[in-house]
Design a protein that fits this description.
6-stranded mixed sheet, two-stranded parallel ribbon
């Protein structure tokens, strides 16, 4: 017989004292880096690509117009007709001036001075529709317009 008896060892308990600190740190990280959408897209659009792009960083007085094919809640294209979305509503070209004036009334004086309309149109959208939207914006007095586009990726082949 041996002098020493072996006693069954228990696994020590897990120290959870630092867990709340870790959870709050991760929560704050995601709160800081998450970008909240201002407008939920109801149309599918794929922006055209360009080579001379300038990033616009001002957010005050910004109204989004999305032009593309309508989608359902799952993101599937419903029809092949081109639709216009102003902020969160599907609209016609004739409704745009009234809705721009309505949005302008809700803005402060500083935002009204910086009012910019951002057009995000599908690359396959006919130019006639975009011209109709521009004419409606001109009637509404919204003369600052920017167009969204993606960066053009150049692929060079070696021969």
């Amino acid at each position: 017989m041996s002098r020493f008896r072996r006693t069954p060892r228990e696994v020590p308990g897990l120290n959870l004292a630092a867990l709340p600190d870790l959870i709050f740190t991760v929560l704050f990280f995601f709160m800081i880096v998450t970008h909240m959408r201002d407008v939920e897209p109801k149309v599918r659009y794929q922006v055209p690509q360009g080579s001379e792009l300038v990033k616009d960083v001002k957010k005050a007085g910004l109204i989004y117009i999305l032009i593309g094919k309508p989608i359902d809640a799952q993101g599937q294209v419903v029809s092949n007709e081109t639709r216009i979305q102003l902020n969160n509503r599907i609209v016609t070209v004739d409704e745009i001036p009234a809705l721009i004036d309505e949005a302008r009334q809700k803005m402060s004086d500083d935002e009204r001075q910086l009012l910019t309309v951002s057009i995000r149109a599908d690359r396959d959208t006919e130019m006639g529709i975009i011209n109709d939207v521009k004419q409606a914006l001109r009637r509404a007095g919204a003369l600052n317009i920017n167009y969204s586009a993606g960066k053009k990726i150049l692929i060079q082949k070696r021969i």
